[in-house]
Amino acid sequence: MWSRRRGLNSGPPPCWPHEIPRWRFQPSFELVYRLSYGGPIFTKYHTNYKPISRTEWNPRYTFIPSSHRNDGVGMKIGIIGAGNLGSSLARGFLKSGTINANDLKISDINEKKLNALASLGMKTTTNNKQLVEDSDVVFIAVKPGMMDSVLKETKNVSSDRLFVSVAAGVSTEFIEKRTKARVIRVMPNICGEVAEMASCYSLGRTAIPEDGELIEQLLNSIGTAFKVDEGLMETVTGLSGSGPAYFYFFMKGLQNAGVELGLPSDIALKLVAQTAKGAGEMAMTHGDLEKLIKNVCTPGGTTIEGVKMLEKGKVEESVEKAVKAAVKRARELLR
Fold first, then answer.
1. DSSP string covering 54-113, please?
2. Strand partners, 164
3. Number of domains making up the chain
4. Most buried residue, 131, 146, 239, 250, by CB count within 10 Å?
5. pLDDT attached to residue 73
6. Nearest to 144 by CA among 327, 334, 324
7. How far apart are CA 169 and CA 146, in angstroms?
8. Distance (Å, rounded) from C-alpha 118 to C-alpha 101?
9. What is the pLDDT of residue 66?
10. What is the C-alpha separation between 101 and 94, in angstroms, rounded?
């Protein structure tokens, strides 16, 4: 028999779904936790309340960050796949404090990868089906060719779950035909590990608006996220999904030049990385890239000579071709 759990002293007690009053106070925090398990609503309260109407109240979600929880009952996040993307998501969620380690589980067939992640405190398993049963939100971070088998394996336990696919070239329609879960498609990049990920997401046909809000807030906790039409996801894949590799390629050239001209390799790398980080921050702040280039290129100075060589080598054109080639391949893989 279900038992009622007391909320924090600062708020009213929990209630059953049919007892929800005309309006209630819902804490206006940034993170959404699903606390309804088919029975009573285990609602915890803190400061900063905002009144909401009956139509706005959603018993499935309430806003409570991990930092304000003390009972270990939070939204359970599962990640299928401990490769580059899966592990970067897991590490990012932990680093940002978004998710407690005991609320995060990751699965993979490679136990060596799992052991490395288990050392960070998160739960691990080789059983995808068990992971789905134990989770409210499941990020599927496997190679596109493995998606079909993963969905078949977990279909019978996927009801009332939210599946978030980060696999390139796999549409929400493809996933929805093979699962009972609600579906959202995300294109992240590997920078989630350091909470600097650029990502976009699209809602599947069965996803509800609250699902989108939840995923956007989770993604924003480890970077910057935008909602886009699913038809643009292949463009996002070629631009920001593949983007880190383009920057690393350019940074490698800068590092090599520094080393050839006498700098120690480690110092050259740190100078390049810090320069890239600062340039990115300025681009985010000012927005006008052409103006920023002109601000650095003093007439008759050193920078303008370097930029002339880049223009002679048609670097900008090559970058555009690289993105278009990646997008073309993403569209070829789409199913």
1. TTT--TTEEE--GGG--SS----EEEE--SHHHHHHHHHHHHHTSS-GGGEEEE-S-HHH
2. 139, 184
3. 3
4. 131
5. 46
6. 334
7. 12
8. 9
9. 44
10. 7
